[in-house]
Fold each of these.
Amino acid sequence: MKISNLILVKFISRPNRFTIKFKNEKNETELAHLHDHGRLKELLVSNADVLIKYVPTYKKTSRKTKYDVIAIKYQNEWVLLNSSYHNKLVSEILTDKLINEIEDFNIFKPEYSYGNSRLDFLLKDNKDNELFLEVKGCTLVEKGIAKFPDAPTKRGKKHVDELIKIRKKSLNAAIIILVLQNNAKSFTPNYETDKDFSDALKEAYENNVKIYPIHIKTEYKNNNLLLRYNKILPIKF
């Protein structure tokens, strides 16, 4: 996936969950929308390089900001911070048949309501077998270990619980965790931050809900951010 026409600026602060202050090339302070509700405390540090994208429709849509945050530079690598691109990235991965275990499945419907949850995708194969799929984005990596979540997520646990129920009905269920730092070597649920979610993820794994921590390689070149599938990382519980 390629995200084009990006602008390089400097991070100043995060006034609230949905907004950052940045300094532009004229040394002026402006605001940009942050489409990631995680804590991100290790990433959002003063004077960090940030990639933003101008939103030409901001006036028509009555937005408070005219820019979206796309990515931030951390340890000399770029990390995607805009969760609105997660499902677009997964759509490309599924279309290109990059996950061997589910290569026979195609996207049937995005944003599919099931039970008490809205899951990211319903997939079907040519025999009409269904696969219910949820997507999460992981930006936290410590000593090469990717950890999700970086903040407690009741909504995330609800999705995992729903997939366990689906699997217990002998239906197919899977979770894709997009690992968005180049230096990740493996994945583990973040027990210290959210034990309930982590226990639920382990229960899902034990019930044969397929879990795919997909390592995404990220590169910034010529004002474009390039994101590509690399491999499925090992899971450690």
Amino acid sequence: MKKVLLAILAITFSNFVLAQESPTSPTKAVYVELGGAGLPYSFNYDFRFDKDNINSWGMRIGAGGYTLSPDGDSFFSLPIMVNRLYGKGPHYFELGFGATFFAFDNSSYDYCSNGYFDQNTGEYICTNIQTSTYNFILDVDGSPSIMGTMNFGYRRVPVDGGFTWKVNLNPIFNNNGFWPLFAGIGVGYAF
């Protein structure tokens, strides 16, 4: 897993090293997104395949996650999407599709969901025991897992680069269903 992440980071940052001149319009961006394809949140790098045309196909790669405590919940996501920008600077419609790989601490635990207090013994008697399992809006079969993602939204990219932001609708799906109303908002820097 570490080798795969290192390879992805090497490919991502090789674009920075190979760039000789910056194009007239910004075709790269780094941003943080709340919701969206990274699920709870993600840090992303977005670039256009045509380095001279922002109004073209591109790709985003990100990473997100959290750990609540050493023995608590943890989550890691890796969104990868192909996207296309349509419009004229600084206003663009963004259309994309891809997948988010994610892993989480899938330990389940039992808890009492219904019961009563016995007056004679002074004990609580549980009549219904439930097992908690993980889901993220849609049921998830286990960890690691993959969630399909789509992207329909607005992206504002200044013609000379700088502060950029986006708002998008991100339908998600897996083998357990489809959720059309997931959304995301992102802020970052275009260059």
Amino acid sequence: MRKFDYTRNYQELDLRSQPELYAIGRGEQGVLLVEPYKSEILPHWRFRDPPAATASADTIYEMFLNYLDRGEFVGADMARKFLQMGYTRSRRYANYRGGKKYDGPVPDDKKGQSGAHGRDQLERQPEDPVKAESARIFKAKWDQAKVHPEYLRQKAAFIERYG
């Protein structure tokens, strides 16, 4: 499977019409870059509290299913990444007040990429139960998405065709 290519100018690309340029990558890579899917899904992504997380996860999962129905694997994979990111961001806010895990700003050349990038990790704080519940909600939908039979079929076909 190809690595996600951060050198592409994703703001200029339409991966609905050029799916061959998409690379699944690892985890959430590219979730805030790949258009037009980012712009379609991002407005629905919320994890502030369990009601917001429930509405968000349900909507994004419905989008996931719609992308699969239309044979748009890239859109389905992006929806899966947003569900995953709902879980990981909720967990971060559950463990770190304000969601700040590392000391200092992200280096300019690493923006959009996850990781410490040489920064020290801050001390974990007592768990926020509201954000932990939001994480649980997203995790359940993410777990459904990543094992959905049609998703797995389209993923295998995508990898076979594009690498």
Amino acid sequence: MHRTFSGLGVLFVAGFGPITTDPARSRALYVETLGLPLKSHGENEDYLLTEDGALSGCRHFALWPLVQAAQSCFGLDEWPADLPTPQAWLEFDVENIAKATEALLARGCQLLVANRQEPWGQKVTRFLSPEGLLLAVTETPWLRDP
């Protein structure tokens, strides 16, 4: 059962994690030192994630390399110099991505990606928070309760 919050219709935190600039050092800390159950995602060895609720309290935790975040938002291998470089990412799953995207635009948010269908089935709208977090509202079907 989902509890909906007022505003954009946020249902739950869909995912969180640091944005890494040195994947090997981050892997050493999060996997080897902390012992988190992170695994590579397919051929993408630097994107380490939890699966199937392996880390209680977060539906999806992942180390996301900055180069991959830049590719996701801008189609570039480098983060644009005129924008704050994000240190972490945070995604909120919402009831309706189209309505949430329109509400963000109406509130003056500068969107980096607007209601895009990703190849893996997630719909996403990305923007930067005042603190420099890479935020998103999403529709992530496989993370929702049946």
